[in-house]
Amino acid sequence: MMHNRTIARLGLVLVGMLMLALVLGSQWGGAAASDEPGYATRPFDDSRVHTIDIQIDDWQAFLDAAPLEEYTACTLIVDGERFSNVGLRAKGNNSRRLIEEYGHDRYSLKVEFDQYAAGSYYGLDKFSLDCSFQDNSYLKNYLAYDMMAFLQVPTPLCSYVWVTVNGEPWGLFLAVEEPEDAFARRNFGANHGQLYKPDYKRLNDENADVALRYTGDDPELYDNIFRTAKFEPSDQDKQRLIAALKTLASGENLDQAVNVDQVLRYFVAQVFTVNLDSYLGRTGHNYFLYEEDGRLSMLPWDYNLAFATYSLGMPDPVNDAELYINYPIDTPASGEIMKNRPLYHQLMKQDEYFAAYHEYFDWFLREYFESGYFAAKVERMADLIAPYVQQDPTAFCSFEDHQKGVETLTRFCLLRAESARGQLEGRIPSTWKERAEWGGPYVPAQGVWLPDLGEIADLKDGVH
Fold this sequence. Notes:
alpha+beta, seven-stranded mixed β-barrel, three-stranded antiparallel β-sheet, globular, disordered N terminus
């Protein structure tokens, strides 16, 4: 056997009990969540495509100013209900820049009900409208969030929305609950903890704080965490978080600083989706960090470049479907990156936690893929959105390209699940070290061409 699997048998009784609770739908987020808010069953009911009409005085002026990411007041008609004086702006970083650069105007949007006055949508303060940039399938974000939610990770709600502007069709978008006040109350209760979105100012900086590395006790060393706080952190909040990072760096008593069970389940879905624009990739960002009582949890965010599409249009890493289908599940990045990602690295050094991670991965593959749930989910959602994609006037791809994207994403995930199963059973390398010492065979790509999922080059020619 290529890897010493004996450690993966440790702590199975405990893990088995946890998995039983997971099947029964227990709460895993820490503090008890509040009663389900009204908005959870309204715009985020994913059994149908919802409607939003943006009523705005000068839409072209809004689009022209979109790169500034400044709010403009508008009226929203959501499934027939009117909401006035709502804040609207474009959102995104690289995607927003590229959309502008290639002459498109289909931006992702951010909607804030309390930007100008106190208000909400049945308790919801903010949501975003994802434009499916670099995603011909329109499914990458949706499926990644579905995987996280299936593993009972606190996850933003999402559903599909047909957007019109002043009554004129604009396109099919994915509405996503923004992790702020309403999200925190829904998942962690009224007395919730602190919520951060660690992010860098410049990618080429060291960004040790985004990687969650302890570098000292001075809060100024963690600006990339504290300046992105969703709720203004007190000195005590900052001290608790820094103390948790210090414990994490020590590698001891990790359960005192980390919600281990939740974080392990997060990493199962994160690793499966081969999301290289993430904490486990070179950029190290695109996640939310939740802290309560000195314990850290990691929450999902932004999967438009997941399923190995971060590589498209870039010289490194290469566009190699077979490589990503068989991407190692135990060391899902180079050694240098792994050592600088303590929330993953320190947990996986502990035999008990490594075993639990494998057990969760086994359960996820069995219940999400091998049960037929995934295939049925994709078929249902693809059928639901197909008529809207077909008439989407601002789409980045043709309907035929969309259908190819759905087919490619489905095949990639099923082959990825086959490889992950082989890695758990020791038939396929699960670390980069093993890959270097082993010649194959791997699960073949079987015709998967990653650019069919949507790549930057598609923007040059437009859609039609």
